[in-house]
Amino acid sequence: MTRFLITLVIGCLMAGLASAQSAYLIQRGDRLGVQVLEDPGLNSQALVRPDGRISLPIVGAIRAAGRSPEQLSATVRDRLASNFRQPPNVTVSLLATAPREILPPEQEEIEVMRVFVLGEVARPGALELLDETSALQALALAGGLGRFAAEDRIQIRSTQPDGQEILRIFDYEALIDGAVQTAPIMLSDGDVIMVPERGLFN
Fold first, then answer.
1. pTM of the model
2. Which CATH number is correct for 111-202, 3.90.1150.10, 3.10.560.10, 3.65.10.10, 3.40.50.720?
3. pLDDT digits (tens, 9 = 90+) for 101-151
4. Which CATH superfamily is domain 25-99 in?
5. What's 45-84 look like in SS3?
6. CATH 3.10.560.10 in the chain, residues?
């Protein structure tokens, strides 16, 4: 009897937690993770903009604020369905809630930029970030470097308004170890961070 009561209490608690999570409504300034099981290339992180929308590959701009993660997952799945033989499995997760100090109620304009992190990181893909985000912060949001990353030659490619591409290379390992003291490398909209794989004997 005691074991039955314990099992019943645990079941009720789990159901309550699940209900609480599903009851959460996405807010402006929340950071979301979107995963598409059938095509990891569509995985991305997105910041909910002041207009309540996010932008996703193929899907485009879509309303997120005021909806639950489950509702948003269903909408993204429907938008992607025509690109797959069967509707894909889409998961939307809440990575971080909106910091109140960054998003005061009266604030209407927030600068948001989109960068791309590729190569040897835990979660490659597109990131929507607040303006004035550094390369190190973007790598952290991408889950950090993979075990085979060439930490001493990470590339940042930026395209200028005139179409010229600028390539910057920095030594992540030296920065973390404190071997060099340099100003943070700040990102701009459209930047691509490429983390190459190290050689076999590096």
1. 0.54
2. 3.10.560.10
3. 544 444 445 567 888 898 998 888 888 887 778 888 888 888 888 888 988
4. wza like domain (3.30.1950.10)
5. EEECCCCCEEEECCCEEEECCCCCHHHHHHHHHHHHHHHC
6. 111-202
